[in-house]
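Field reference: sequence -> structure
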Amino acid sequence: TSYTWSNGAISSSIAVMPPVTVSYTVTGKTAGCSSTKITTVTVNPTPNISVNSAIICTGQNTVLSASGASSYSWNTGATSASISVSPSSNTNYTVTGTSGSCSSSKTTAIIVNPTPTANANIFNASSPGCTNGSATINVNNGTPPYNFSWNPSVSTTSTATNLNGTTGGTTYTVSITDANNCSTVYSFSIDCVTSITSLSNQYYTSIYPNPNNGSFVIESSLPFQYKIFNTLGQVIKTHEASADKVTVEMSEYGKGIYYIQIIDIHQNLTTYKLILE
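Structure field:
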C-alpha cells in the first residue's frame, strides 16, 4: 500500500500547519487499485489581543482592559475583560484571550511612580503682631522638581515666611505635586507665642558638644529618632529614642564631617552638621 498527497508527501501520515483553511487530497494504492479522499483542515484566526498599559502613583489604582477575544483569563486569576489593579511597584500583567479553540496572550506593564511624602520645619509666630512665623516643607520619595500650592496663598515655593499665628494655631495646607504628577497634601499649624510659658513649649532640638570627640548628646522637647549619614550619604547609625535626651557614641568612626537627621513624632525633619575631631 502506498499514499500520495496533494502536497507531494508519500507517507500515510503528514503534519501540516496551514495559515488558512486548506483541503488536502490523498490517493491510496493497493495491488493496482487506487482510491482518493479529500479532507479539510479548518484554520480559525488566532485572537489578536490588545490591552492598555498605565503609569500611576503609589496608592492609586487603574483599570486594565483587554479586547480581541471572546473570553479572558488574567495572571491575577480574574476572568473578566477589565480588571482594577493597585500595585505598589512596577508590575507586569498577562492576559490570555480565547475565541473558540484558539487563544493568545498579551503582557502589559504598570509603572508605579513614588508618591511624595512631606514634613516641615516650623517656627511659630511671636507677639507682638504674631505675623512672623515661618515654615519650610521637606519633600521625600517623589521626583523633583516640585510644585507647591499653599492655602492660604502665602507662597509658591517650599518656604513661607511672615505666617500669621493665633492662639490655638492657624492651619496652613500645602499641596505638593512632583514631576510625575504624583501629589500629596501636608497641613500644619502656626501658633502665636505670647508668653515665656508658651515659648518653653515650642519644639526644640539641641546637639552638644559639637564639634566633639565622638561622644555627644541629643536633647529635644519631643520624642524623636535620628539617622547619621557620612559624606557619601550612607546611613551609618540610626536609633529611635523613647526619651527626650540621649547620648550618642561614635568613637568607632573616623574624624570628619557627618550629618545627623532628627525626625520628631510629628514627622518634622531637621538636618544638622556634626563634626568629629
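Note: The first helix runs from residue 196 to 200.
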